[in-house]
Amino acid sequence: MRNAFNVVKAIDDGKVNATQAELANYRGEALAAIALCYFDLTRLYGYPYAKDNGASPGVPLLDHAIGYGETSTRSSVAECYEYIINKLKEAITLLSNSRNDGHLNSYAARALLARTYLYCGKNKEAFGTADMLINDLKSTGLYYLVDNAHYADMYSWGNKLGAEALFQVSNTATSNPGRDGLSYMLHWWGYAAVVLTDDFAQKLKSDPADVRNQLVATYQDGGDHQYYNLLLKCPGEKGYDSPSFDNNYTVIRLSEVYLIAAEAGLKAGGELRQPALDYLNDIVRRANPNASVSDAEFTLDRVLDERAKELVGEGHRYFDLLRNGKKIVRRGGKHLPNAPEEIDWNYYKCVLPISRDEFTFNPDMEQNEGYTKE
Q1: Contacts with 109 (C-beta within 8 Å, 6 or more apart), sequence order
Q2: Cα dihedral sign for 315, 160, 259, 49?
């Protein structure tokens, strides 16, 4: 965020030598990056909007890179989401409509705006933003849903920045997180520290025709001889026979936009219910062409179930359950030996504590409930 704010200031100070179109796009990228960072900070440190209509503390809101000795107070979650929405709206007017892999363009910012609306309960706005984006992309063909036959290929090492990748963090052979990266955590050749629960694996396997089964593999650990279900979304250059370091990390892809439209339209109801169901079935039928969800089956739990299957490993399930007031059930075996099995938004550790370092600079900063400042 500091870097992004510095880019904006450099543009304002006339220190960036570029055309007006380039300057507008640079500013738009910086504003969208700031909004994205604030979105993640808000959902990590602030309680879900639906718990109290955003009244609880979120994070400090700034319009510049904070200076030495400067302090700020925490704004409410509602104020944070409003800030994020305004930043994204401004960014969208500035950003290019061209495909710019590894960078934020107008389509990525619009997708993030739809996600933000969903998180703060603005369901008609979330549906409208997602619906318009989907239809615009159908007309341009810049991004599109990968079909059933090529679904598993979407995650191959050589298919970075594919058809659905609205925004990915690009990693290269020389610039990547190495063994600290998520891909190495997932890989059997690496740490194999992030695995699928048996419950989730069985949920997928209950429909053998679901193409997403191709992204699950069973691995036996040579040390403890236990079996683990591995997610195959981050293969190495030679598939799962080589270590995985430089995979791109997906921030948002087109499938999520369809699922945003499905959830938001369901919640809004009325005339939006049927198009929302159609968007859900686009994802369901892509996974299994012979499957579909009926109107009677079109419930929030069914949408969340589809989000779990489609977006597994992409950082959504915890927040999906939390923001909808659902219980999070954690049953995993040796990697969760002492964890509580069920938590919800009333469990104080569902959000992170403010770091004690913050109180060194600002003793008046409010701590999250249940945590201390020491």
Answers
A1: 28, 32, 35, 88, 91, 92, 95
A2: positive
Instruction: Name the packing angle between helices 106-119 and 20-45 (round to 10°).
Output: 30
The per-residue pLDDT for 332 is: 59
Tokens of 49: 């909007």
Helices (H), 329-373: 356-361
In sequence order, what are the residues at sequence separation of 6 or more whose Cβ sits closer than 8 angstroms to the Cβ of residue 191?
179, 184, 185
Q: Name beta bridge partners: 229.
A: 196, 218
Residue 335 three-state SS: coil
Contact 113, 81 (CB under 8 A): no
| pLDDT of amino acid 151 | 96
What pLDDT, on the 0 to 100 scale, is given for residue 28? 98
Nearest to 359 by CA among 71, 61, 76: 71
Task: Report the chain (374 residues): mean pLDDT per 10 consecutive residues.
Answer: 96 97 98 98 98 97 89 95 98 96 97 98 98 98 97 89 94 89 85 84 92 89 72 85 87 98 98 98 98 98 98 96 93 63 92 93 93 93
Give the C-alpha separation, 44 to 214, whole Å: 31
- Find all residues with CB under 8 Å of 123, minimum gap 6, and list them: 117, 263, 264, 265, 267, 268
- End-to-end CA gap in the chain: 26
Please enumerate in sequence order all residues whose Cβ is within 8 A of that of 98, keeping only pairs 6 or more positions apart, or say none.
Answer: 105
User: How many CB atoms neighbour CB 14 within 10 A?
Assistant: 8
Identify whether the C-beta of residue 24 lies closer than 8 Å to the C-beta of residue 94: yes
Give DSSP secondary structure letters for 140-163.
Answer: H-SS-PPPGGGTGGGGSGGG-S-T
pLDDT at 208: 95
- Spatial contact of 116 and 84, defined as CB atoms under 8 Å apart: yes
Cα(9)–Cα(7) distance, integer angstroms: 5
List, in sequence order, every beta strand (DSSP E) within 187-264. Answer: 216-220, 227-231, 249-253
Buried b (16+ CB within 10 A) or exposed e, 355-370: eeebbeeeeebebbee
pLDDT of residue 229: 86
Q: What's the pLDDT score for residue 140?
A: 96
